[in-house]
Amino acid sequence: MNFYQPMLARVAEKPFKDPDWLFEVKWDGIRAIAYIGEEFTIRSRNDKELSQNFPELYELKDLVTNVVLDGEIIVMKGGTVDFQLVAQRNQVENQRDIGYLRAKNPATYIVFDILEKDGQSLIDKPLSDRLTILEETMKPGKYVIRSQPVKENGIEYYEAAIEKGLEGIMAKRSMSLYQPGVRSGDWLKIKEVKQCDCVVFGYTPGEGSRSGTFGSLLLGLYDNGNPIYVGRVGTGFSDEDLERIKSTLFELEVAEKWFDEPDIPEGSTWVKPRLVAKIGYQNFTRDGRLRAPRFQGFRNDKPPELCSINQVKAQSLDEYYRKRDFSSTDEPIGGYGKGVGNSFVIQKHDARRLHFDLRLERDGVLVSWAVPKGVPEESGDRRLAIRTEDHPIEYGDFEGRIPEGQYGAGTVEIWDKGFYIPVRWEKDKVEFALAGKRLKARYELVKLEKEDDEWLLFKKE
User: Fold this and answer.
1) In the chain, % of residues over pLDDT 70
2) Residues annotated catalytic, as ranges
3) Are 357 and 349 contacting, i.e. CB atoms less than 8 angstroms apart?
């Protein structure tokens, strides 16, 4: 059995439509090549053995034999792919922790290519032929599935992927050969790139070819006037950029240390917060960092103090963020989901007091009410509904346990979900029709005059 380096993709700026190409989801996980034969091993791009951290993937031995497969290991949480959870599983070493995380956050291996079968290399066959062989060879399992590419319609497929909160799509020429270790234009990755304006608070020392300039810029955003560290950016710079920026940073150096975060490298240098950098990034992580940031230039038209944390956290979600410690709770940090415009969810929340949470999607968030006695199912039945903080769109898929000591500690289950038709949405009255799995009826929320947060919810005839 041969060993292979994974074929890599180049970046495409936008989706396209072409009958000679196949399109599939770009999964946000760990790239892994699986060798299933007399011996079993799953190797990462840097040749790390992964099977011990993801023991559920031994299921592959029951599904197929004498093959080499290429795919991605992911972890799903609340209906979305969570890269931080799969990265956490990849880092633990203690067997008890591995077993615990396997049960809590099981992994899925999504297979998108077959490189060898019965000792015969397949890399010189066109992708379309390899996929046919893969379909004939491997049956899906509980933790192992095959990717399902579509032909031609890359634009529509990309838009659907982004709408569902995925990071993007892969485009692959249907006649492409597998080129181990090569970043080829026959495979393209098309990702949605978000942007924000960050303040430069310092820089890390350069190494190697950058020993005379800097390694990365230390970035921050302001939250009510207080600087918050959001990570560092080390890509996107030309050689000319490095020299020019280093000269500017030298003039701004200060002794004051802005942040004391453990992930800031020792020997970093601090500067006056005068520079505003335009940063492209993938998403904002649970621990408050820009993921996959890339430098896109400086802005001299924007004062640093206007670079607010609200760029990466929706302003209407401030109260949601203040009440939660995302290092302890699995609730989604969210703030970047697009939603569908008119979704709703009703969650059964067994907290200090059992109640139901009604959430209606509006303006990019889930507007929320706590209904102590549940949503009425009989016409004319009135229930008290307490207006609570807005929740991120991603909360509509959340189920799980909120730990003791955290806001809302207890178990959350989805009781009903679907879409709603807004009939009227005013400051003190909301009328809507639910089209869910359980409830299909018209409702009205009416705000009580003397109380800011108290409403009446009743089912209409």
Assistant:
1) 97
2) 26
3) yes
Task: Read off the pLDDT band of 379 (50, 70, 90).
Answer: confident
Q: Regarding beta strands 120-121 and 107-117, do their DSSP bridges make them parallel or antiparallel, or are they unpaired? A: antiparallel
pLDDT of residue 183: 87
Given this model, what pLDDT does residue 227 score?
94
Domain 194-311, CATH class in plain words: mainly beta
Long-range contacts of 264-269 (CB under 8 A, 24+ apart): 264/204, 264/218, 264/229, 264/232, 265/204, 265/205, 265/215, 267/204, 267/205, 268/202, 268/203, 268/204, 268/205, 268/218, 269/202, 269/203, 269/204, 269/205
Convert 23-70 into a string of H (helix), E (strand) and C (coil): EEECCCCEEEEEEECCCEEEEECCCCECCCCCHHHHHHHHHCCCEEEE
pTM of the model: 0.57
Tokens standing for 395? 């909360």
Residue 389 contacts residue 357 (beta carbons within 8 Å)? no
- Using only C-alpha atoms, the chain has a radius of gyration, in whole angstroms, of 25
CA distance 79 to 223: 30
What is the average per-residue pLDDT within 88-109?
92
Closest to 263 measured CA to CA, from 286, 247, 287: 287
Using the predicted structure, report yes or no on whether residue 315 has a pLDDT greater than 80.
no
Res 327: pLDDT: 77
Region 73-84: mean pLDDT is 83
Confidence of residue 164 (pLDDT cuts 50, 70, 90): confident
CATH architecture of 8-191: 2-Layer Sandwich (3.30)
Helices 83-91 & 95-104 angle (0-180, nearest 10): 160
> According to the model, what pLDDT value does residue 287 have?
78
Inter-residue contact 384 to 445 (CB < 8 Å): no
3 state SS of 92 = coil
Residue 301 half-sphere exposure toward CB, CA atoms < 13 A: 2
Every domain of the chain and the residues it spans: 8-191, 194-311, 316-459
- pLDDT given at position 380: 81
CB-based contact 386:370 (threshold 8 Å): yes
**Token digits for 242?**
């490095």
Residue with tokens 């992911």: 74
Please tell me if the domain spanning 8-191 has the same topology as the one spanning 194-311. no
Nearby residues of 326 by Cβ (< 8 Å), 6 or more positions away: 286, 287, 288, 333
